[in-house]
Amino acid sequence: MRARGWQARGLLRVPGRVLLRLVLWSVLEAGQTFLLGYALARALDAGFLAGDVPTGLAWLTAAGGGVAVGAYGTRRVYGVVADLVEPVRDRLVAGVVARGVRDADKGALSGLTQQAEIARDTLAGLVMVSRSFVFTAAGALAGLCTLAPPLLLVVGPPLLAGLGLFAATLRPLARRQETFLVADEALAAELGEVCPGLRDVTAAGAEERVAAGVGQRVDAEYRAARALARFGVVRVAALAVGGQLPLVLLLAAAPWLLRHGVTPGALVGALAYVTQSLLPALQNLVHGLGTSGARLTVVLRRLCPPAESGPPPPSPGAPRADTDAPGDHPADTESAALTLTAVTFAYGPASTPVLDGLDLCVPHGGHLAVVGPSGIGKSTLTALAAGLLDPAHGEIRVCGHPVPGTRAAALRVLIPQEAYVTTGTLAENLALLRPDPVPERELLAAAEAVGLTPLLERLGGPDAPVRPAVLSAGERQLIALTRAYLSPAPLALLDEATCHLDPAAEARAERAFAARPGGTLVVVAHRIDSARRARRILVMDGPRTAYGTHEELLRTCALYQDLMAPSRSPVT
C-alpha cells in the first residue's frame, strides 16, 4: 500500500522564515512570564519588605509593562500562526479537490466544506497551546533559576513527571478517540437507515432483529466511551502531578527553603510562577493535545486516505491503434482504453434518453472527437466515462476496469470547460494530479508541449505564486490542460476544455495530448477543426449516432456535412 500522497509531499511542512517569526514573537510574549515572578520578588525583597516603597512600585510597574509588551507579542503571534496554518488548509483543499476529480470521491464535498476547516482550526489551536506551554515554561523556569536555584529542585521534578505521564497517554488516547468517533458514526448511520423504515420493520415483524443490530452498535459506542473516559482520568492525574503538586511542595518546603537562603519575595515569586503561569499553561496543553490532537489525527486520516494499490496503468510504450470502431468484439474491448456497451442514460425516469444503447470502443492510443449540436449529450458522454453520472443500463470500462470504480478513476482524467486553479505556486497547481512532486525538467517539457511556456515565463517560473483571480479564462485552461497532461492517467477526456483558447493554441494542446506516450484522447469538440485532427469522430444526433473518419462521415452523414459548413464552424 502506497504512502499517503499529501503527507508524503510534506503536508505539514513549515517555511523556515515563518517558524523563525513565531519563535521571535513567542520569546517577546514569554518576557511577561519571566517578569511576573521576578518583579514581584524584587518588589517585596528590595522594596516593600525593605521599607523602600518607590522601589517596590517601580518593580510592579515593570511587571505591568511586561504584560503590555507580552500582549503585543501575543497579537503578532496570531498573525504568524495564520501564515502557518492557512497554507496547510490550502494543501488539504487542493488534495481533496484532486481526489474528488481523480477518484470521483463522494466524500470530497464534506472534506472540502467541513473537515478541512476542522483541521485548520484544530491545528491552529494546537500550535497556540503547544507554543504557549513551551515558552511559558521556559520563562517560568528561567525565573525560578534566577530567583533561587533550589526552587527548581521543588518545582522541576513533578512538572517533568506530569509531562511524562501525559505524553505516555497521547497515542492510546488518540486511538480510543478515533474508535469512539467511528462507533458513533456507525450508530448514527444505523439509526439513519432504521428510523425512516420503522413501519416496514413492524409490518415485517423484524423488530427483534433490528433491535439486536442497533443494540450492538449502542454497546460498541458504550464500550468505546468507557475506554476513552478511563484515559480521561489519567489525563487529570497528569495535570495534578505536573501543575498542582509543585504548589503543594512549595508550601510544604517553605521552611526548608527559607533556611537555605531563599528570600520571602523569591518564595512568593515562585508561587506566582506556578499558579499564574505553569498551571494554566499545563492545563491548556493537556486539554488541547488530549482532545484536539486526537481530533486532528482523525480528520487528517479521513482527508489523507492511503492510495489503493492495483495494476499499473498501461506503459508509455503501449502500441497505438489507428483503426477503432464501435462495437469491436469483447477480446478487443478488454484491452481498450474506453468501452461503452449498450449504455443508456436519461436525466429522469420519464425523460427521453440522451444516450440509448450506445456501443463505443476507443483503443489505447486512440484519438476520438465527439461532435454534435449544443445540448445533444456530448458532455453527458464524458461525465459517464468519468464516473460522474451512472448509466441506467449498460456497462462502461476504462482500461478494462468498470466505471464507477476506484481503479478506473485513477486511469482517466477529465478536463471540464471550467478550469480550476488554486492559490499556490504554479508547480503546485501543475502537480495536483501527481502523487509526488514533478521534476522541473518534466514540468517544463509538458509546459512547452501544451503551450504554457509563455505564461510560465511571464509569471516568473514554476515556483512563482499564482493568483487565480488575475488570470484570464484561457490562461486557467492552459494550466488545467498542462496539469492533466502531467497526470499518470492514460485516458484524457477534454470536455470543451479549450473553448477559451484561440484556434492555434487549441490545436497545439490537442496535438500534445494526442501525441502523449501511451495516452488516449477523447475530445468534445468546440471547433470543427478538432474533428479534422482526430483519427475517429463520433457524431451525436439524439439517440442516433454516426461514427467514422472525417472522409467517411463527409460522404455518409448529413449532420456532419452540415456541421462542416463554414457558417457552422463552432460545433457547440
General description of the model:
- With 572 residues, this protein is an alpha/beta fold.
- Helix content is 62%, strand content 10%.
- It is built from 20 helices and 12 strands.
- It has helices at 5-8, 16-48, 53-103, 108-147, 150-194, 198-203, 207-252, 254-259, 264-303, 330-333, 378-386, 406-410, 426-430, 440-450, 453-459, 473-486, 503-514, 529-533, 550-556, 558-563; strands spanning 338-345, 355-362, 367-371, 393-398, 401-403, 412-415, 424-425, 465-466, 491-495, 520-524, 536-541, 544-548.
- The strands form 3 sheets. The chain has a 6-stranded mixed beta sheet with strand order 6-9-10-3-11-12, with helices on both faces.
- Helix 4 (108-147) packs antiparallel against helix 5 and helix 5 (150-194) runs parallel beside helix 9.
- The chain starts with a helix and ends in a 9-residue tail after the last helix.
- Mean pLDDT is 78; it is low at 1-10, 101-112, 306-333 and 567-572.
Helix content: 55-70%
Beta-strand content: 5-15%
**Tally of DSSP β-strands:** 12
Report the end-to-end length measured between terminal Cα atoms. Answer: 44 Å
Number of DSSP helical runs: 20
Low-confidence stretches: 1-10, 101-112, 306-333, 567-572
Rg, Cα atoms, Å: 33 Å
Strand order of the largest sheet: 6-9-10-3-11-12
- The best one-word shape is elongated
Mean pLDDT: 78
Sheet with the most strands?
A: 6 strands, mixed
Q: Structural class of the secondary elements?
A: alpha/beta
